[in-house]
Amino acid sequence: MNTILLFVAIPILVIVVSIILEKLLNNPLLIAALVFAVFLVITFAIGDTTLLIAAFAYALLALLTALAVRAFCCLRGLLCGESNENNNNNLCDTLAESIDNNNNNSCSNNNNCGCNRHRGR
Protein backbone atom coordinates (compact mmCIF):
# COMPACT_ATOMS: atom_id res chain seq x y z
CA MET A 1 0.00 0.00 0.00
CA ASN A 2 2.81 2.43 0.81
CA THR A 3 4.46 1.74 -2.53
CA ILE A 4 1.29 2.67 -4.42
CA LEU A 5 0.98 5.80 -2.33
CA LEU A 6 4.59 6.86 -2.98
CA PHE A 7 4.64 6.11 -6.70
CA VAL A 8 1.09 6.90 -7.84
CA ALA A 9 -1.08 8.94 -5.49
CA ILE A 10 1.43 11.50 -4.18
CA PRO A 11 2.95 12.27 -7.62
CA ILE A 12 -0.55 12.90 -9.03
CA LEU A 13 -1.25 15.19 -6.09
CA VAL A 14 2.05 17.02 -6.67
CA ILE A 15 1.23 17.51 -10.36
CA VAL A 16 -2.24 18.90 -9.65
CA VAL A 17 -1.03 21.20 -6.87
CA SER A 18 1.87 22.40 -9.06
CA ILE A 19 -0.50 23.30 -11.88
CA ILE A 20 -2.75 25.24 -9.52
CA LEU A 21 0.16 27.05 -7.87
CA GLU A 22 1.72 27.93 -11.23
CA LYS A 23 -1.52 29.54 -12.31
CA LEU A 24 -1.58 31.54 -9.06
CA LEU A 25 2.09 32.34 -8.38
CA ASN A 26 3.74 32.26 -11.84
CA ASN A 27 7.08 31.21 -10.36
CA PRO A 28 8.26 27.61 -10.93
CA LEU A 29 11.21 27.83 -8.53
CA LEU A 30 8.97 29.02 -5.71
CA ILE A 31 6.58 26.15 -6.35
CA ALA A 32 9.39 23.57 -6.28
CA ALA A 33 10.78 25.08 -3.08
CA LEU A 34 7.35 25.05 -1.45
CA VAL A 35 6.73 21.40 -2.38
CA PHE A 36 10.19 20.45 -1.13
CA ALA A 37 9.68 22.29 2.15
CA VAL A 38 6.34 20.59 2.79
CA PHE A 39 7.72 17.13 2.08
CA LEU A 40 10.84 17.87 4.12
CA VAL A 41 8.70 18.68 7.15
CA ILE A 42 6.66 15.53 6.59
CA THR A 43 9.86 13.50 6.23
CA PHE A 44 11.30 14.61 9.55
CA ALA A 45 7.96 14.34 11.31
CA ILE A 46 6.94 10.83 10.29
CA GLY A 47 9.30 9.47 7.64
CA ASP A 48 12.67 7.98 7.02
CA THR A 49 15.35 8.25 4.34
CA THR A 50 13.04 6.79 1.70
CA LEU A 51 10.69 9.71 2.10
CA LEU A 52 13.64 12.12 2.04
CA ILE A 53 14.69 10.80 -1.36
CA ALA A 54 11.08 11.01 -2.49
CA ALA A 55 10.96 14.66 -1.34
CA PHE A 56 13.72 15.53 -3.82
CA ALA A 57 11.91 13.63 -6.58
CA TYR A 58 8.61 15.36 -5.80
CA ALA A 59 10.29 18.78 -5.84
CA LEU A 60 11.81 17.99 -9.24
CA LEU A 61 8.41 16.79 -10.46
CA ALA A 62 6.81 20.02 -9.23
CA LEU A 63 9.44 22.11 -11.01
CA LEU A 64 9.03 20.22 -14.28
CA THR A 65 5.24 20.45 -14.08
CA ALA A 66 5.33 24.20 -13.39
CA LEU A 67 7.73 24.76 -16.28
CA ALA A 68 5.52 22.71 -18.59
CA VAL A 69 2.43 24.70 -17.59
CA ARG A 70 4.28 27.98 -18.14
CA ALA A 71 5.53 26.84 -21.56
CA PHE A 72 2.03 25.68 -22.50
CA CYS A 73 0.54 29.04 -21.54
CA CYS A 74 3.17 30.93 -23.54
CA LEU A 75 2.72 28.67 -26.57
CA ARG A 76 -1.04 28.94 -26.33
CA GLY A 77 -0.72 32.71 -26.34
CA LEU A 78 1.54 32.60 -29.39
CA LEU A 79 -0.60 30.14 -31.33
CA CYS A 80 -3.92 31.76 -30.52
CA GLY A 81 -2.64 35.21 -31.45
CA GLU A 82 -3.16 36.74 -28.03
CA SER A 83 -1.06 39.88 -28.01
CA ASN A 84 -0.92 43.16 -26.21
CA GLU A 85 -1.64 46.37 -28.09
CA ASN A 86 1.44 48.02 -26.57
CA ASN A 87 3.81 45.27 -27.63
CA ASN A 88 3.66 43.75 -31.12
CA ASN A 89 6.53 41.33 -30.46
CA ASN A 90 5.90 37.73 -29.59
CA LEU A 91 4.71 37.07 -26.06
CA CYS A 92 7.75 35.12 -24.93
CA ASP A 93 11.10 35.78 -26.51
CA THR A 94 12.55 32.66 -24.94
CA LEU A 95 11.48 30.25 -22.25
CA ALA A 96 14.72 30.97 -20.40
CA GLU A 97 13.80 34.65 -20.14
CA SER A 98 10.45 33.59 -18.76
CA ILE A 99 12.08 31.41 -16.12
CA ASP A 100 14.68 34.01 -15.16
CA ASN A 101 12.09 36.71 -14.58
CA ASN A 102 10.76 36.07 -11.09
CA ASN A 103 8.18 38.83 -10.81
CA ASN A 104 4.44 38.20 -11.06
CA ASN A 105 4.35 38.95 -14.80
CA SER A 106 6.25 36.00 -16.09
CA CYS A 107 7.86 37.27 -19.32
CA SER A 108 7.95 41.03 -19.01
CA ASN A 109 5.82 43.81 -17.67
CA ASN A 110 4.45 44.66 -21.12
CA ASN A 111 2.93 41.37 -22.22
CA ASN A 112 0.43 38.74 -21.25
CA CYS A 113 2.59 35.63 -21.06
CA GLY A 114 2.35 33.40 -18.03
CA CYS A 115 -1.42 32.97 -18.03
CA ASN A 116 -2.19 36.30 -16.38
CA ARG A 117 -4.22 37.83 -19.22
CA HIS A 118 -7.08 38.74 -16.93
CA ARG A 119 -5.06 40.44 -14.21
CA GLY A 120 -4.96 44.19 -13.99
CA ARG A 121 -1.85 45.98 -15.18
Q: How do the helices and strands line up, and which of them pair or pack?
A:
Blueprint: H1 2-25, H2 28-46, H3 49-79, H4 95-100
Folded structure, characterized:
- The chain has 121 residues and is mainly α.
- The protein has one domain.
- Helix content is 66%, strand content 0%.
- Helix 1 runs antiparallel to helix 2 and helix 1 packs across helix 3.
- The chain is elongated and about 50 Å long.
- About 7% of the residues have low confidence.
Q: How many helical stretches?
A: 4
Question: What does the average pLDDT come to?
Answer: 79
Q: State the helicity in percent bands.
A: 55-70%
Main beta-sheet annotation: none
The SS-based structural class is mainly alpha
Using only CA atoms, what is the Rg? 17 Å
Gross morphology: elongated
Query: What is the H-and-E element order?
Result: HHHH
- Percent of residues in beta strands: under 5%
Quote the distance from N terminus to C terminus: 48 Å
Number of strands: 0
Poorly predicted segments: 103-110
Compute the number of structural domains: 1
